[in-house]
Amino acid sequence: MTLSPDRLERFARHIVLPEIGGSGQMALAEASVVVLGGGGIGSPALQYLSGAGIGTLVVVDDDTVDHTNLQRQTIFREDQIGHRKVELAEVWVREFDSEIEVRWVHDRVTASNALSVVAGASLVLDGCDNFATRLAVSDACVSVGVPLLSAAVGRFQGQVGAFAGHLPDQACYRCYVGDAFDADDCDTCAEDGMLGAMAGWTGTFAALQAIRALLAPTGGMGDPQWSKLHLLDGLRPAMRTLTVAKDPACKGCGAT
After folding, report:
1. Is 141 a catalytic residue?
2. Coil, helix or strand for 116?
3. Which of 35, 47, 91, 138 has its CB surrounded by the most CB atoms within 10 Å?
4. Of the residues 172, 175, 189, 250, which is catalytic?
5. What residues contact 194, with CB distance under 8 A and at least 6 apart?
6. Which domains does the chain have, with CATH numbers?
C-alpha cells in the first residue's frame, strides 16, 4: 500500500513528526478500529480517528439521536433527532474523508455477538454505557487477540485504559473491575449529569491513546501503555495514571 499525493498532502502534519512519519501514517491507513458507542465518547473519538486517517472504521450502536444528546455528541444535528446514530456516523465520516472505509452495526453488543463484532479489528475503542457490554467486549477481545481501549465519562471525570489481556503479562478490563459488574448497571449521565466538554476531552484522549497503540509496532509513540488507566479530572484540572495488575484468577484472561 502506498499513499497518493493527495493523502501525503492531507497528512503532511503527521508525516513530518518523527514519531509518525510515512511508515506510521501507512500503519494508520491500514488499521481497522471498531468504535463501540456513537455517543459522548464515540463522537469526538470518531472525529479524530477519521482525522488521523484510520483506514477502516466500524461504528456499533443500537441507539437513535435524542435532543439531550446534542449537548455533548458533536457529530449530530437538531434535524437528525430520531435517526440511527450509526447511520449518521457513517455519513459524517464519508463526508469528512471519502477514502475511509466505514461500516456500521445497529445492534446491542452482548456476550453472544461480541466475538463477531470485534474479530478482525486492529483495535477496539469501547465507549459504551454499561458494564455487561464492556465485559463481554473485553472477553471477546482477549479471545481473538485484539487490544482494547476502554473509555468512560461522568460529571467532571473521565477514564481511559489500554488493555491487552491476550498478552501473558498484561491485564484485561475484567482484571480491573472484576466479575461483580456483569449487569447493565453503570451510572447514567441523565441521573448524574455531565459536562459536555468532559466527554470531548475523554473521547479525544481515547483517540490519542488508540493512535499510540496502533503505532506501537513502528515504535513511533513509544510504550502503548497496556494496563495503564488514566483518570481525567475536569474540575482541578488534572490527570493521574494507575497501573492495573493482571489477575491470575481472572476468568477473562487468567491462567485458571
Report:
1. no
2. helix
3. 35
4. 189
5. 40, 72, 153, 154, 155
6. 31-243 (3.40.50.720)
